[in-house]
């Protein structure tokens, strides 16, 4: 039991007291349930793979999104991590493919382009068919640096390079929006009639 | 003193205890300072006027923005309140004129177009010179209703009707952005090169 508690306590946000509570909970369950929980954890690392095309998590060599014939092949949305793929999928507004960089360029943390999936992105774009690359990275210093690096690398290809819109959140009030974002939302204003069916 | 405490206690967010604290503070000040404070309050309502063109607050008949020869006359940004004018001015990204509606259409609260400065907006646009009307209202139900009402009214004029961009905040992460806003930021994506100098 001490062993199990120590294992749980390794997880982020779980201390020894919570770990003990979780272990005591498991001890009250049926044996079969506890075994299947343990097996799920073992399989997790063994069987979850990364898609060889977009580096998203996947059960097989190619992820569901890259394998789907219903997704537009010619548009690639570049994101930092798998969590961003999930966020964008939840919007149901995007029907293209992804490319997961696995991080952002950050000289301070010693992360350069070589540590990210940049080469494989350039290969995908260089292979031809791609019409548009959407840069959907965070707008912090690392995100801006990475955006600009990718832009410079991608510029030589015949491909449209776009970025997600910045602006006031839907339901957000002007008064509580920071000045930079509000300023950007005015500069990049849209035709009202184009937004009517969104 | 009881009188002064009662007056302070009328203000929003100030209870009797705080009011008493404020009055005791004033009693400790020089008489001239307290008199000038009182006079400022009296002048506030007497001398602050509303601009007859855009309905922003003003010291004179016409506000500084409407009177300025450096502001573009042909673009009008429609906002709900004076606070929104201040928010947009703080961004230093807008160089046109404003039109303060004084509220939003809200059938639930009995606010119709007749209670707002809609007629005077239509007159300004109808007078000719205006090239673009930017709808910069909140995206709640009242804001959407008002946007659509104004759009229908303005459509017959030869004027471009735009709206501020909605999207991920600058510095905001995709993961913490609500699905509607993230979805909109992808649908309304921009050319990356257009955003480079913003």
Summed up:
The structure is a homodimer of 198-residue chains. The first copy, chain A, has 198 residues and is of the alpha/beta class. Chain A is 44% helix and 12% strand.
Top keywords for this entry?
7 strands, Helicase, Ruva Protein, domain 3, 9 helices, 198 residues, four-stranded parallel β-sheet
What CATH first level of the largest domain in chain A would be assigned? Alpha Beta
Tertiary shape of chain A: globular
Specify the number of helices of chain A: 9
Outline the low-pLDDT stretches of chain A: none
Average predicted local confidence, pLDDT of chain A: 91
Q: What's the helix-strand series of chain A?
A: HHHEEHEHEHEHEHEH
SS strand fraction of chain A: 5-15%
Structure explained in plain terms:
Two copies of one chain form a homodimer. By secondary structure, chain A is α/β, with parallel strands linked by helices. The first copy, chain A, is globular. Chain A has nine helices and seven strands. Chain A has two domains: 2-47, RecR Domain 1 (Helicase, Ruva Protein, domain 3, Orthogonal Bundle), CATH 1.10.8.420; 70-168, Dna Topoisomerase Vi A Subunit, Chain: A, domain 2, CATH 3.40.1360.10. In chain A, helix 1 (2-9) packs across helix 2. In chain A, the strands form two sheets. In chain A, strands 4-3-5-6 form a four-stranded parallel sheet. A two-stranded antiparallel ribbon of chain A has the order 1-2. Chains A and B meet through helix 5, helix 7, strand 6, helix 8 and strand 7 of A and helix 5, helix 7, strand 6, helix 8 and strand 7 of B. Strand 6 (160-163) of chain A pairs antiparallel with strand 7 of chain B.
């Amino acid at each position: 039991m001490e062993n199990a508690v120590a294992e749980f306590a390794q997880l982020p946000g779980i201390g020894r007291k919570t770990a003990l509570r979780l272990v005591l909970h498991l001890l009250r369950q049926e044996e079969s349930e506890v075994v299947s929980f343990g097996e799920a954890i073992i399989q997790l690392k063994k069987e979850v793979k990364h898609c060889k095309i977009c580096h998203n998590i996947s059960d097989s060599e190619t992820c569901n999104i890259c394998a789907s014939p219903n997704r537009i092949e010619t548009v690639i949305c570049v994101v930092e991590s798998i969590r961003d793929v999930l966020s964008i999928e939840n919007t149901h507004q995007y029907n293209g493919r992804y490319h997961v960089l696995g991080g952002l360029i950050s000289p301070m943390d010693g992360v350069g382009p070589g540590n990210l999936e940049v080469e494989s992105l350039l290969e995908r774009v260089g292979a031809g068919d791609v019409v548009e690359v959407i840069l959907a990275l965070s707008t912090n210093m690392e995100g801006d640096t990475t955006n600009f690096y990718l832009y410079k690398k991608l510029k030589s290809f015949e491909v449209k390079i776009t970025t997600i819109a910045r602006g006031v959140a839907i339901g957000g009030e002007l008064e509580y929006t920071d000045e930079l974002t509000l300023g950007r939302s005015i500069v990049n204003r849209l035709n009202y009639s184009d937004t009517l069916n969104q």
